[in-house]
User: Which sequence fits this backbone?
DNA sequence: CGTGCTTTTGAATAGTATCAAGGCCGGTGG
DNA sequence: CCACCGGCCTTGATACTATTCAAAAGCACG
């Protein structure tokens, strides 16, 4: 039930009470394990997904199967939405952690948009923010060298991670997964992480990366004037 | 007057008739020459811009003044929008051709959104499409080599160009401007264009680039499964 | 006709991707 | 329990690509 949902950041909360109930009765909320596809590139568009809990990567591949992560999403984010009006998703989505994700079909969503202006406006603002973030990312990936890109990637992962409880952030993604976020390969990521560890900008515990000073990492990217308000 | 506007693709047309008139009475439509700033990075957000005619680049710079073009826009597109809720624009916009661009202040826009669901939905869809395009671009710029990026850039410029009347598209941007769109430098662009001319994939007339076979150019990028429906 | 800007091309350099080998760790099966 | 296997990580050597530097030519402009 949406009305009892723990996730305050869910966009559906911008609907009227009776619409929240209506959506609640139509949606379903499967439980996804880690590394599970939510939808595939090329599959049919049936509706939109709202992340209740967990971290998700949005991916796009070339014909050789090489995969690029184009966006990360966490609780409160919407997925699949970018495909409205098209027949098929041009991108795919995969869970990075164990997740709960609500699915709402196109028809219900369309009616909700027409009758809940506040909801529609907030969804619009969500896209607007994501577009701005995507554009800043375009700039960074175009102008940065490998070391800077890795730092950018780590900060991005940290910001879209859910466990920001303590003063240290742990990253459980593989070197390969990080490489796909910033557009390089696992060897380069490994090299840069080794250097950053020597410079005491991060620690590693086995394969886990531990960020203990986000501000110091951000400072290394300050030349790019990144607006950091995700 | 919006009601008499020649631009059928303008998003404002999704409002009710009286709202179109209301917006019409509040907006202004300055005439911009080529290479004119519409708004600067860091300036205050007063409203949104609707392109009536012309081509515009959205740019973002680093602290050294190096400039990256993160998006191209043409008639029917919205600008400045991505800054709602923020105090300042994190990006800037510059005309690439002589243009007419309508400005609507934040307050009027906000009221229009609340009372014109169809308008809001279409603006949302516009963002949604732009986000998808930006993400595909992220993938391409991450995976392509320089030659492919230049071809991608030329196709992007052609698609956001207004004079698609004949079977050949002319591009008047400098090598430097093209380089900033794809994240390289003018020398590389020059080299690639020389090679493409030898391969008969394009022609040049003085500094102008002439594309006479868009399909052949697109075919060279087919490995990337680009959804080409801008 | 000179000046300044863009384009083009070559050469040197720097940076990144690729290839290869070894180490570490967890899981599996004898 | 231990040996083996496969996956991921790390590091070095090498090849390749892209950037930078430099110079000359072309064009626009006063």
Assistant:
């Amino acid at each position: 039930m949406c009305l009892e949902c723990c996730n305050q950041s869910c966009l559906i909360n911008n609907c009227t009470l009776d619409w929240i109930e209506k959506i609640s009765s139509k949606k379903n909320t499967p439980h996804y394990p880690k590394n599970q596809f939510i939808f595939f590139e090329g599959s049919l568009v049936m509706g939109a997904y709202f992340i209740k809990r967990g971290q998700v990567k949005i991916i796009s591949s070339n014909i050789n199967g090489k995969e690029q992560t184009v966006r990360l999403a966490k609780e409160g984010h919407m997925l699949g939405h970018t495909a409205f009006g098209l027949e098929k998703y041009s991108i795919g989505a995969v869970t990075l952690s164990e997740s709960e994700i609500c699915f709402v079909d196109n028809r219900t969503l369309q009616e909700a948009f027409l009758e809940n202006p506040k909801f529609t406006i907030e969804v619009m603002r969500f896209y607007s923010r994501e577009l701005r973030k995507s554009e800043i990312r375009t700039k960074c990936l175009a102008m940065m060298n490998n070391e800077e890109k890795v730092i950018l990637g780590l900060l991005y992962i940290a910001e879209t991670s859910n466990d920001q409880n303590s003063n240290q952030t742990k990253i459980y993604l593989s070197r390969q997964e990080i490489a796909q976020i910033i557009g390089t390969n696992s060897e380069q990521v490994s090299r840069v992480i080794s250097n950053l560890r020597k410079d005491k900008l991060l620690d590693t515990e086995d394969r886990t990366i531990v960020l203990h000073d986000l501000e110091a990492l951000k400072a290394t990217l300050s030349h790019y004037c990144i607006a950091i308000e995700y």
User: Anything to note?
Assistant: The mean pLDDT of chain B is 91. The first strand of chain B starts at residue 31 and ends at 32. Chain B has two domains: 2-131, 144-224. Residues 145-146, 184-185, 187-188, 206-207 of chain B lie near DNA strand D (CB under 10 Å from a C1').
